């Protein structure tokens, strides 16, 4: 199984390649023959016709997976799959009704030459909303500014993982790192964060991770990046050469405080899309809650898309089910702790993110100046009545 490459790891290819990857054409595969959803009440909060583009285009940052369930759950039963462009399009269905517009969900990663989502959004104006990690938004703020409008995953599931047999009795990243183990990642943000806190030494940093299990299987003394919503299941159940549990801890425990993949709009299109966002953002808030309440149908679509796209990405029903449970049970998806509202951004946390990652990116030469935290998000369109139930 190939996993996403990690924070801010991108390979810039020509714009023509990106646009061709996002464009139409190619074989289309239809969805199952199921009854159409009833139409939303005309002029009501779920009627997007007239307020939003005829096709709401949602751009993800990686291959289809359950962490993106909130986007894929909006795709209605009349969907078609474009196996060339690697996209799925159908009626945008929210809370069981047809909103009067279509939705197209596009994957990222190798499908778009590993371009960051802000770059894609500035190359292709048809993209309505994109999934933009907070650190990615900081990096792009000078030339490709985006404004996050809803957080759909509250805490990052990014982890470092280790072999419990090689590091017997150890339960934290700090303990394993103190042994001098190599920290294998695909990007340099996490190592810089941990080194700045004195948790690892510069000599432990290894950014050669390629998304495969080969290194971890052959050298189980290392710490390796992963996601709590995937790798623990995959390594135990789907990698025959391993076939046992891994130890892991979320990097959020060490200051990796980013909002993971909040939906964002281009900053220069905020005014233009305001009428749409007033209705669409509450739908996006609720779509994550609705997905996790009944992930099965959307997970089946995600697995179908992976099989149809044939990109070399492997994703099974088992890991999709595990991911949906982990998102809830491990607290990665929850109400905003500060306000109790689902999807709302905490201003103090956003300032902490910029104060933490801005200087790191500046020291690495990625940015020349640190953006104002308030420019990276807005709670204007959030419906404060939308909250997850339970503790």
From TrEMBL:
Biological processes, Gene Ontology terms: thiamine biosynthetic process
InterPro entries assigned to the protein according to its UniProt record, in alphabetical order: NMT1/THI5 (IPR027939)
Signal peptide start and end residues: 1-23
Top-rank lineage group of the source organism: Bacteria
Record keywords: Signal
Protein name stated in the entry: ABC-type nitrate/sulfonate/bicarbonate transport system substrate-binding protein
Organism: Pseudonocardia hierapolitana
């Amino acid at each position: 199984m190939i996993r996403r490459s990690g924070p801010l790891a991108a390979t810039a290819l020509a714009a023509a390649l990106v646009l061709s990857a996002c464009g139409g054409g190619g074989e289309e595969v239809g969805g199952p023959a199921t009854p159409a959803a009833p139409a939303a009440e005309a002029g009501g909060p779920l009627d997007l016709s007239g307020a939003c583009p005829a096709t709401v285009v949602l751009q993800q940052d990686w291959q289809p997976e359950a962490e993106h369930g909130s986007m894929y759950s909006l795709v209605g039963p009349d969907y078609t799959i474009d196996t060339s462009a690697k996209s799925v399009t159908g009626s945008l269905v929210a809370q069981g009704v047809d909103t009067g517009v279509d939705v197209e969900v596009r994957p990222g990663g190798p499908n778009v030459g590993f371009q960051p989502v802000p770059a894609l959004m500035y190359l292709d104006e048809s993209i309505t909303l994109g999934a933009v990690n907070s650190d990615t938004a900081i990096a792009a703020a000078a030339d490709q500014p985006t404004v996050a409008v809803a957080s759909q995953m509250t805490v990052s599931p990014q982890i470092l993982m280790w072999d419990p047999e090689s590091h017997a009795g150890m339960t934290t990243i700090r303990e394993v790192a103190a042994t001098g183990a190599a920290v294998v990642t695909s990007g340099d943000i996490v190592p810089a964060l941990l080194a700045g806190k004195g948790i690892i030494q510069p000599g432990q940093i290894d950014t050669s991770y390629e998304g495969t299990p080969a290194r971890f299987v052959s050298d189980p003394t290392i710490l390796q990046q992963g996601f709590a919503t995937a790798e623990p299941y995959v390594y135990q159940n789907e990698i025959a050469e391993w076939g046992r549990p891994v130890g892991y801890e979320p990097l959020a425990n060490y200051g990796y405080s980013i909002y993971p993949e909040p939906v964002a709009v281009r900053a220069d299109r905020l005014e233009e899309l305001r009428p749409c966002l007033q209705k669409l953002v509450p739908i996006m808030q609720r779509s994550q809650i609705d997905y996790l309440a009944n992930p099965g149908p959307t997970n089946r679509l995600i697995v179908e898309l992976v099989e149809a796209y044939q990109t070399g990405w492997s994703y099974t029903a088992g890991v999709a089910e595990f991911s949906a449970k982990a998102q809830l049970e491990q607290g990665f998806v929850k109400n905003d702790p500060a306000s109790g509202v689902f999807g709302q951004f905490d201003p103090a946390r956003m300032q902490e993110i910029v104060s933490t990652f801005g200087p790191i990116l500046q020291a690495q030469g990625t940015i020349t100046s640190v953006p104002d935290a308030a420019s990276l998000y807005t709670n204007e369109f959030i419906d404060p009545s939308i909250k997850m139930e339970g503790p």
